[in-house]
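Chapter summary example: a protein plus iron/sulfur cluster.
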Amino acid sequence: MSDEKKMFKVTIDNITIEVEPGTSILNAARMIGGEVAPPAMCYYTKLKGSGGKCRTCLVEVAQGSTADPRPMPKLVASCRTNIMDGMVVKNITSEKVIDARKGVVEFLLINHPLDCPICDQAGECHLQDLSYEHGASGTRYQFPRRTFEKHDLGPYIQLHMTRCIMCFRCVYTADQVTNRRVHGILDRGEHAEIATYIKTALDNDFIGNVIDVCPVGALTDKTFRFKNRVWFLKPVDAHRDCPKCSGKVQLWYRGDEVFRVTARKDEFGEVEDWICNDCRFEKKKTADWVIEGPSKIDRHSVISANHYVGAHKPTEIEPEVMGRPPRLLMDIHSVSQVNQPSVDLSLLPGPAHSDDFNGKEK
Amino acid sequence: MGRKLLLEKAHVEGIRYYDTYRREGGYASVEKALKNLSPEQVVEEVKKSGLRGRGGAGFPTGMKWSFIAKPEGVPRHLVCNADESEPGTFKDRYLMEFLPHLLIEGLIVSSYALGSNATYIYIRGEYAWVADILDQAIVEAKNNGWLGKNILGSGFDCDIYVHRGAGAYICGEETALIESLEGKRGNPRIKPPFPAVKGAWDRPTVVNNVESLAAVVPIINMGGEEYAKIGVGKSTGTKLISACGNINKPGVYEIDMTISVEEFIYSDEYCGGIPKGKRLKACIPGGSSVPILPANLLLKTAKGETRMMTYESLGDGGFATGSMMGSGGFIVLDEDQCVVRHTMTLARFYQHESCGQCSPCREGTGWMHRILKNIEYGKGQKSDIDLLWDIQRRIEGNTICPLGDAAAWPVAAAIRHFRDEFEWHVNNPDECLKRNYGLAHYADPRPVPAATA
Ligand SMILES: Cc1cc2nc3c(=O)[nH]c(=O)nc-3n(C[C@H](O)[C@H](O)[C@H](O)COP(=O)(O)O)c2cc1C
Ligand code: SF4
Ligand code: SF4
Ligand code: FES
């Protein structure tokens, strides 16, 4: 009896479950899953103190608890509000929530350019998903958008501040995961920007993780950026004996080439184990890794298109049409006018440049 | 003459200095509290007084004090909020500048009540000279045994430190203030936990306004019950009002909350009416963040009663027909004032002061300001008015701290009560530009059309 934990009952969008005391509304909703889980742009389970800022996860509390059934007067950030016993929450069943969320998306898109076609995050961007699911089709904002000078963060990371949505995740990551934080927020309000004060580089064994936590394309991997679109890549789980981190990663293949290495993420797009810079930036050969098998991708993103694990695959017709077996969909080198077969994009030291494509020998 | 409790001695020559202040009866409340009352009894007196926080929200001070957590072995802190950056509000400055010892006295008694051995005054950076005055007063108080170890042999230790802000309105919000005091960026914290549980350095902390803390002095001197007899209903005691705008006598007034708004504006004891006999158009009664009220709703409440200078009466009927006492920044507009222009100015302030943490406030305040600028300069469209309404509606209530609301309310109220003025701007773009305010820097921001041959 005594070691039996008291559980709290909570009803979210008419579905009732029991959760442990101390669970946030967001996490309770995630246990139910699907549409009931509010979108989250700034909260990150692994980062202490994160959440509460972007306001995309706002929900309506229609009943505070069994003991105090009064509704909460304002919408609350589900990521930072804990469940009370008997709480009744409305997420997508609340008109107020839907309206507020539409507002938040509109606010976020004021200063986030919709440059998905040239953004490295396309296909993995939470804001893209969020706008698609909760946004309006047009904007009512008629003023010039803010712009920033490009800010180079050293050998591995490039910051595109124009795309930043000020979720603060990277700051928390640098603060909590690495042993030296040199970047943060400068200025206030809409002028606020993520920056290193005196344009220093971000160099730190674990700093690469800021790329993974960035929900949009503001922080990009210099060893990968613009070399490929993620949906052309095939994620594979792999590990290595790493003296610094767990060494558990995802390798992103195109054909036989490893284009990038990232941490593994859960179904809500959150990193499972932080990885070190060595694993992320320096180990780009299959031989460096023990391959475990194809990653299970169950995110709603475009990456899951064509990716598998138990999925029913239509019959391949490429061998008949093209006279050879397919590599992923097609061998880009043999069909593209742009990519030279002699150029191994994954081996380029920096970002790919037009010179790399137009056949000029360097 | 209204009753004066705080500013009674403000005009005594040399009252800024310890000797005069003491000669005039200063520090009596410290003697009374530390010698005769337990900390709990002091809290009890403040509860009885019905004092409501003078920093804006009007939350009962005694109740706030009784919420402070008391974990074993953990220090507690009292922080005096002297950030005072709300446009139209300048009462705390006046109090600190002329009666620094009154604040120090209130702080000692309040620190005793709360068990704070290290008390902070977080003062707005721009009040540099006031910070110097306070520093000097603290030294005087300490030299005379009112601060330091074992004050008056009571076993209570207390030190007061003045911490200067760097000039950000948001650092007046209590959790942002605590962050700033800790040496961090002044971003509001997400509540809960509330400061009473986890405040400065994660210790239980109470943040109170300058005027609230100064009011503790008369409360202890006269007793909470006596204090509660002054005023009306839940608006007990006296309130400092900083009056400005189109009035004959701008300044800081102490009122006991029994007078009407009309009396406050027109009587010679207070604002002395509107210059050149112009008509009253509107008033922002509680500092720039509270809703503006047009003259007809300002002098009479929704119920048709005379509007009084009390918390209840100023808020009568909610925001559709009322406003707020707020911080007591009383801004009067005469018939020549343009509400659109004023709203634009306020919007500029809020967009500049947003800390940038949460998306609706960070992006929405700038958007509202730009639209208002367009309307004011004759570049607006009719749909802009509805758009503004929509934006403020989606900011209000959806942000981490009340700055979002503070930015939304003035816009909402201006559109609610003065929609015709917005429409006039939209319909008469050229007239908008002809208006001359004698302000060169407000020149037409539209590009000058190229000269044609
Ligand atoms: C954006 C913002 C600015 C504020 N600025 C001040 C200020 O300058 N001075 C102040 O006393 N309270 C200010 N407040 C209110 C404080 O957060 C807090 O409620 C107050 O200091 C509590 O004191 P009181 O209980 O004595 O009123 C501000 C609140 C907000 C949201
Ligand atoms: S750079 Fe990315 S992770 Fe950092 S605050 Fe901006 S959007 Fe968030
Ligand atoms: S409402 Fe504005 S000032 Fe307050 S936390 Fe959000 S962005 Fe900062
Ligand atoms: S995820 Fe909850 S506010 Fe950002």
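Key point: The interface with chain A takes residues 168, 170, 185, 190, 351-367, 370, 387, 394, 397-400 of chain B (CB under 8 Å).
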